[in-house]
Design brief:
Layout: H1 2-6, H2 9-29, H3 37-45, H4 51-61, H5 69-108, H6 113-118, H7 120-131, H8 133-142, H9 148-157, H10 162-172, H11 174-186, H12 193-227
């Protein structure tokens, strides 16, 4: 009875309008569109012991505004350092991704079944997500070609199991979380050894999966050409 009421279009529309209103309120009421890593760092630092909790909470709702994650990533390193900053970033990033998944699954998974059928690409992606969801999401989180928030919302509309999605999301974001936190931390000492190590780490996270994928493709081509009579 309760579940039937929750699935009613009026309730879903009200929920969606509430999310939009909340996003607009935070965006223009608090001016988060003007945030920089330094401003965010100073704001959270002023919260004392509540700082980590507030940071994780803000990062969790960040996808509702499509606010750039990079600012939160760098601010975490500036404020908490590369180690604890990575922990808080992964917590907030994971919770935000879970929130996106839950919102879209609640609002319209069944309604998108027709959309999957009209697009062969989306249909194939949906089937792959159902059969090998963990690996599919893990690759999308590691390879920097896929928009993070868009993947989070799209995953909720697919047949993907939440457990596979959640585990792959948290594991897949670890390398990038540490690299960007280290970069944020190094901004306290520009052009130091830590700064250049952080630049190298970010470059490795960004280009490493692409280079590895291209390397495997070329190996496969060579193997196939050698196998021909």
């Amino acid at each position: 009875m309760v579940m039937t009421f929750i699935k009613k279009p009026v309730v879903q529309a009200g929920f969606l309008l509430g999310l939009v209103a909340t996003a607009l309120f935070f965006t223009y009421g608090f001016g988060i569109q003007k945030l920089t890593p330094e401003i965010l760092r100073n704001f959270i630092a002023a919260c004392g012991w509540w700082g980590p909790v507030i940071y994780v909470a803000l990062y969790t709702i960040r996808p509702l505004f499509f606010f750039p994650a990079l600012i939160f990533n760098l601010a975490s390193g500036l404020l908490f350092g590369p180690w604890w900053g990575t922990v808080y970033l992964v917590m907030g990033g994971s919770l935000g991704a879970y929130l996106c998944f839950g919102i879209t699954r609640f609002l319209g998974q069944k309604r998108c079944s027709a959309l999957w059928g009209k697009s062969l690409y989306l249909q194939n992606w949906n089937e792959n997500a159902a059969e090998s969801g963990f690996r599919t999401i893990l690759m999308m989180r590691i390879v920097p070609l896929f928009p993070y928030d868009l993947v989070s919302y799209a995953a909720g509309l697919s047949k993907l199991r939440f457990f596979d999605y959640a585990l792959a999301t948290t594991i897949g974001m670890l390398p990038g979380a540490f690299a960007y936190n280290l970069l944020g931390y190094s901004l306290n000492e520009l052009f130091s050894t830590t700064f250049f190590i952080a630049i190298a780490a970010v470059a490795l996270v960004f280009f490493g999966p692409l280079i590895y994928t291209e390397y495997n493709r070329r190996r496969a081509r060579v193997r196939n050409s050698n196998a021909r009579p």
